[in-house]
Amino acid sequence: MTDASRERAAGRRRPRQSDIARVAGVSQAAVSLILRGTPSGMALARETRQRVLDAAEELGYVPDPVATRLASARNAMLGLYTFSTTFPTDVAHSYYPVLAGVEEEAAAQGQDLILFTGSARAAARAQDPAAVRRVRVADGCLFFGRHVPEEPIRRLVEDGFPFVYIGRRDEPGVPYVGADYVPASAQVVARLVAAGHRKIRYLREHDQAPASADREEGVLKGAREAGLDTRGLVAPTDGADADALLGGWLAEGVTAVVVEQTDTGAALAGLGAAVGRAGLDCPGDLSLAVLGAATGTRGRAPGGGAAFSGFDVPMREMGRDAVRLLLELIAGSPGAATRRLLPCEPVEGGTIAAPRPPKKHT
Amino acid sequence: MTDASRERAAGRRRPRQSDIARVAGVSQAAVSLILRGTPSGMALARETRQRVLDAAEELGYVPDPVATRLASARNAMLGLYTFSTTFPTDVAHSYYPVLAGVEEEAAAQGQDLILFTGSARAAARAQDPAAVRRVRVADGCLFFGRHVPEEPIRRLVEDGFPFVYIGRRDEPGVPYVGADYVPASAQVVARLVAAGHRKIRYLREHDQAPASADREEGVLKGAREAGLDTRGLVAPTDGADADALLGGWLAEGVTAVVVEQTDTGAALAGLGAAVGRAGLDCPGDLSLAVLGAATGTRGRAPGGGAAFSGFDVPMREMGRDAVRLLLELIAGSPGAATRRLLPCEPVEGGTIAAPRPPKKHT
DNA sequence: GAGTTTCACTAATACGTATTAGGTCCTTGA
DNA sequence: TCAAGGACCTAATACGTATTAGTGAAACTC
């Protein structure tokens, strides 16, 4: 009776393996074995096999993916949990290439993605642990975003749930795929020094993220290795005080500025505008370098068409590698390196030149 | 013994209702009833209910969507199937705002999204029906993309699976949320006519998509209503022959060109370049109008900073409305209009002006 | 010709949740 | 004191497939 009413409601009911079994005169198990492929050492008579295949074809059988996944432990779905909206409003958002990489690799590996949209509500209710816990519906999960509620994540670590963070993390035991900012940032400073700059400033945002800390560390490392004075080297900004900062630096004889590029891009935008307002030529009057222009969103230098000098963050590759690592964790591969830093590609660009001969000094 | 070995193998197993039941000292059925909500006329003691809820919280229980789906038919997950990569390589891709709208509304409705990444392989294997079939793990599915394999879709219609197409479709019975291009396109022509133009051309791409057909229909409608000659009005292009077309039109005394804007943007890009090479001033020498600039990607007119005149496609709202419609279909709402066209917002822009007094005629 | 293998398949059960049909106790009314 | 009813919960089963253990029969071994 229930069956009949369901058939009425949904038109013709989808044929199942048991229907095929009835038609072909075999058991449901035989149908499953034949359609799925016999595991090993199992043999089915050629004729029976054909009868089942014919019946399946005739009935228009389609396996139910839900049942398939219930029966086998995996569901070939990877979670993607972002701590802001996944599709940001700002098209030029720097997250974007990472997501593209994630999708690309997931598709290549035959995995679907579950986008957890709880972010908005989770943010509203301040760290609702249930929101993060929901990711367990997937085989594993990728986390992405600068600011993360730590408590729910720790919970996942404890439970042994497979997940990978995109971006370096400080917490022990958290697998991640990040960018290797330290050497890349040091190398940018080295390039400025090689071009003749001795008075350099580093403009960074007010931010506690590991990515920011690493860049600063790299800049300091590069400065020390070149024998530069690191006092006053680092200047945090919110993007609004750029004019004052720039004026001060020019007065001090600064010839090059390194800028941190993050998802908001506030520091770079602020400085770029200030350079424009001051009527400075770049790189004629001032050399600029950017730490981590987002691939595909690469800003244009104030002067004209040339790209900023600095390095690119391998966003796409981070996304891809995170998927690979996650799948290894899910599979339980023992030898996998669970904390990975990918190298950043240097960008030649056109915003570094030799400094003008200093007036005071000559 | 089996349980124990599995626990060892996979670390700690995900908690199930039966685990909660054991902890709380009730049956699995009671757990399901309490967590899911008692149907009607069922009463559970307040104290028992609390014990179960506490145990669930303590164990970090999350319902298995696959099992949920198999047993009932809801899992609060909507599928999103795109017939190209979901995160396109081109950041300025016009699909983007639609996806943002989908995510926004899904989050608002407490639904997660399943991104089906089969697209790549499906495209490779030319219309593999299995790829589309995967969507059935979700409660319903959104389809998005200009070119769609029709056969698998028809299959879903037959099976009564709830889905919504983003973009108008010709096939009968397919629910969709699209943009109402016909009146919007006609209105653009009317605006040109009102500005004094009588010789107009419409540049469209070689494309069979309904969206293209609708725009052309609207342009023709607008032309007829203004009493214009529609012969030679429509010109398809691949973007490469723009110089020749433009030259011919100028010789004919054409004073305004309407351009179709699609996801590739080839037609507009080609014409814009041709206008530049011909040294024409827009709108001084030639008025331009664009049918459907993508929100957020709005092109700039060749002359300078002004936006193209024309209309905007309500991409974001289409995404949102598609989610709403899909949820209605899933809920089985009887009165829902299943085929919706949203109005396009006119864009004033700066590329329409009165035509120069024609030389030949005067 | 008793024992062993191989073949070809089936029975049974797991996967995790939803749902329905009861089953116990406890209170209440007559 | 017995029946009726309600409150509270459990047993049983369904959902559709995967998988393992096992079964009967034929074929082979010595």
TrEMBL record, chains A, B:
Tell me which residues make up the HTH lacI-type domain: 15-72
Keyword Transcription assigned to the entry: answer is yes
Please name the SMART domains in this protein's record.
HTH_LACI (SM00354)
Keyword annotations from UniProtKB, A to Z: DNA-binding, Repressor, Transcription, Transcription regulation
**Listed InterPro entries:** HTH_LacI, LacI/GalR-like_sensor, Lambda_DNA-bd_dom_sf, Peripla_BP_I
The record's listing under Gene3D superfamilies reads:
3.40.50.2300, lambda repressor-like DNA-binding domains
Any one GO MF annotation of this record = DNA binding
Name the UniProt record assigns to this protein: LacI family DNA-binding transcriptional regulator
Natural source organism: Streptomonospora nanhaiensis
